[in-house]
Amino acid sequence: MSDHYVKVSIQLEEMKSFGEDAEKEGVDTEEQVPVCSPSASVSPPDPSSTTIAGRDASNTSITCKHRGKSRSKLGKDDKNSCGKHTSDVSLHGSVVSAHVGRNLNRLTHDRTLHVKGTGKILQGKSETNGNNVTVHPSKNIQETRREDGFKHARKGRPVTVDISKAKTSLEALKLSIKQLKWKEFPLGRRAACDIYWHGVSFHDNDNIVSGQVNKFPGMIEMLRKINLSRAVRTMQELFPEEYDFYPRSWILPEECQQFSTQIRMVKENDATINPTFIVKPDGGSQGDGIYLIRDPSDLKLMVGTQAKQAVVQEYIQRPLLIDKLKFDIRLYVLLKSLEPLEIYIAKEGLTRFCTEPYQEPSQKNLSHVFMHLTNYSLNVHSGNFVHSDSQSTGSKRTLSSVLYRLAAKGVDIKKVWSDIIALVIKTAIAVVPELRVYYQCDIPPGKPGPTCFQILGFDILLTKNLKPVLLEVNSNPSMRIEHEQEVAPGVFEYVPSPVDEEVKVGVIRDTLRLMDPATARKSPDEGALPSLCLKQVYPKYTKQFNYLRLVERIASLFIRFLGVKGNMRMGPTAFRTFIRTCKLSNSNFSMASVDILYIDITRRWSGTMPDSREAGMGLQAFVEAFFYLAGRRFKSLVLREQVVSLLQLCEAQLESQSGVEERRSVSCSRAMPRAVRTLGLTNPQLNSPAPLRRASSQDYRLHQRLKPRTLRANVEN
Ligand code: ADP
């Protein structure tokens, strides 16, 4: 082994064990991980600052079809093939850098917080950093449920897994269960299992009342391209620099006009820059229906008579290339729990390569699927596709092999990896608030139900400047470990794919180890098994990222005032109750204005949410209303500070009122039998203030819940 190779190996090993030592030793890792500076300057995103401009172009599209369908290039003749290209400047605006000792004014002290109306008693350490008070609950509903499950968990018997709904992850799952010496139930089981493995959604098996399910309710909906873009955009409004890893996106059809106007303005300012955009259908996956355009007039807005739901996004024109090919990274991330937030990242991932050498987009090559799209499902149909028998060659390679290559070229892969970790944590922070709303809707506190965890597939592109860019998050990343191969002319067979097997079996096996009910309180039994391939990144890096969790605090208010169990939308009465309870109305902002605000925002949002389950105000609309209220109240501040100030105000109101309620209930309870007192603490209905209860029953009549629709979404299976 050459010296150089030894150095590279050491560097990669360091990268792999990144944070491991710190975790073991309880060392503050602020110096090692990317830190998002809470003191970063805040300014609203300026559309005109994007360096996107260009010339007119004819309508060009890429058709992405699968086996059995014809694949054709539909690109028209090039009208403007020699335009200058923009670099992905808007993504280079800021570099996430390490800040040590940023949180000097942070105080830590023990707190107990009663969250009324939810029956939750949060106990644990809270951090005050001048901006916000966040409670890290030491125990909450999800944990309590999990512990209840553990009581019934095995004593000396193997963990039981219902694999009847595993679909295409079945092979990898079976191998994992075998390695763990657990017991699988291929046809399901009459008695309860410890773990239910679903191939698609939380609802694959209905009526599960205990154990753990490998899907969260609402994850499919949340990670559709439009919803993800919306969630990230909300965070971009609050933290533009921290969330610059997601390309500028517009939602179609509603922002079509805005998109056209902004691009026209940019082009008028600088005619030398030639932008490209990628259009992705909302529920699409595997490259289906994706096409590139260079001018807003090339958008295809209709399918028959219906407006297409899609996202149009700034195209990253200068990706990092290896062997002249564009590639992307598939990273597996385990969302182990929402409350408390627990995130693990797989140390090994996959890279998927294009099969045609990359050229920056021009009118001529816009329709070249094999050059621009890295999807395996598309490139496998190219004559150039190479099935990998080793991990470092071919069209699908391990992430570590690519990082070796980069390290060998002198790339600081530690920095790349820590930027990737930051991207994952920030993305999770963006989607968790709405997931919490779905969760309490499907598994309301007090109702028997399972706990959830989920493996997600993050698709990440590295720019030429090594900045990770988030392309999308898959709620159901393909866990297939075999691929189709033509073994004789016209004869196709499934053959094992060593690269997929290496990565995916490890991810599933170690997810199961982490979810093993018997080892929940200690580290998984190593035994003969390899060390865990999943690294905890949250709560490990709480200190660096916790300040970003503002929308989650808004979601907590939202959930608290939703009122009716199983509701996802807030009715007008509950919204009024929120305003009254938090004392947000006054002579300048009457209750009549509150009603108008409610109607105005709710009406606008209901037009943009075709999949909505119910009428009323959803979380995203509530967040908009909250931003508006914050802006009215704290005019002189920037948005982020406005929101922090209003949150503090609301939380303080609720805390002071819960103090009054508690004192009242203590004085009343002196006369009550013990059993009734205990019930009062755990039953949200008994604990909630009377007006809230009234609101709840009225809203319930007003907002009849509809059955969730089956959604086509980013499912790769
Ligand atoms: P799908 O769910 O259909 O796979 P993606 O968002 O993953 O949709 O996009 C498909 C492919 O298109 C990606 O794997 C990547 O190669 C390419 N791609 C997507 N978005 C961008 C972008 N903004 N810039 C450059 N390439 C992109």
From TrEMBL:
One of its GO terms (cellular component) is ciliary basal body. Pfam families: TTL. The keyword Nucleotide-binding applies. InterPro entries: TTL/TTLL_fam. Residues 33-43 have a biased composition (Low complexity). Residues 13-87 are annotated as: Disordered. Residues 13-27, 74-87 have a biased composition (Basic and acidic residues). SUPFAM superfamilies: Glutathione synthetase ATP-binding domain-like. Keywords: ATP-binding, Ligase, Nucleotide-binding. One of its GO terms (biological process) is microtubule cytoskeleton organization. The keyword ATP-binding applies. This is Tubulin tyrosine ligase-like family, member 11. Residues 64-73 have a biased composition (Basic residues). GO terms for molecular function: ATP binding; tubulin binding; tubulin-glutamic acid ligase activity. Transmembrane segments: none annotated.
